[in-house]
User: Fold this.
Amino acid sequence: MTPITRENRYIVIKRSDLSETELDHLTLLEFPTRAAVVVEADWPEYEAVWAMIAARSTSNHRALIEDSGQNGGGA
Assistant:
């Protein structure tokens, strides 16, 4: 199977990196929001998470952690 390609699809801004004024400006722009899990590149889990996504995307493997059915996902 073809390996997945890492795509630069999203812009993620850490709230603590913004001033109150900058947060207010972003709110005024009314961009749609999305629920997501973000694993920063300097975290030890970063490459393991990519490997989990690749395994799930390129085969019929189920996710390693089953979704509990709640909005936040698994365990």
In short: Helices lie at 20-29, 46-57. Residues 5 and 54 are 9 Å apart (CA to CA). The radius of gyration is 16 Å.
